[in-house]
Structure formats: C-alpha cells, structure tokens
Fold this protein.
Amino acid sequence: MQIDMLKNFKIKTEHRDVYSITENVKETVIASGVQEGICVVFTPHTTAGLTLTSFWDPAGFEDLQDEICRLIPTRIDFKHQFDTPQDAAGHVKSSLVGTSLTFIVTDGSLLLGGSQGIYFLEFDGPRNREYFVKVLEG
C-alpha cells in the first residue's frame, strides 16, 4: 500500500516579505509516515514564489528580495496591468522564481543541507495566501 499525504497551510503576508515554512514542511513529512519518497511544496499564487536558501543571516532575505526587485522593478510599462504595476511585476517574479519545490524524503525525514531552509516569498501583498505540501512514498 502506498502512503501519501496532502496538507494545506494558510499564511497572511505583507508586501515583499519572506516567510520560513521549513518547520511546517518537516513536520508534514514526519506526520506522513513516509520513510522513502518525495515531498512537493506548491503555492497556487501568481504573485508569490518558493525558494530554498540559507537561513544563517536574515539580511540574506532582504538581499534576495532586493535583487529580485532590481531585476524586475515595478514599472508602469508592463504590457499587462491586470490590477496594478506591482501585480504585473509580481507575475514576472513568480514565473522566474517558481511556485513549487521538490525534495527527497529519506529515513522518514526531509533531506536538506545543514543551512538550508524553505521560504515563501511575497511579491505583491499584503494577501491571504496558501501553500500545499504533498508527501509521496516511493
């Protein structure tokens, strides 16, 4: 019998903020009972993203958002302006950063490097957001 688990998490965000979701993902893997498999983290939002990065220096999160905004600034000449220029920039940022991550589960735990953490990135906001964690055996 194959084991799998899907868990939904809600998060309230602020503009350009970064949220650690590492512990929620780790706890979901443990609760699933899966010993060997994969874990997928996904957010269904087009102005948010997910990343894996170091947690050692919190200023690194500011650097990350600053560089993303430097590469994709909020401006009024985007061809699509569904809501606001900030929203249009958020769509580009989300597409480039990505909305899902896949991890290896081994010995019943999430396989991460010693300084790695999983983070939810808000590019628009403030918003009520969600992300999903799916753990699959195999």
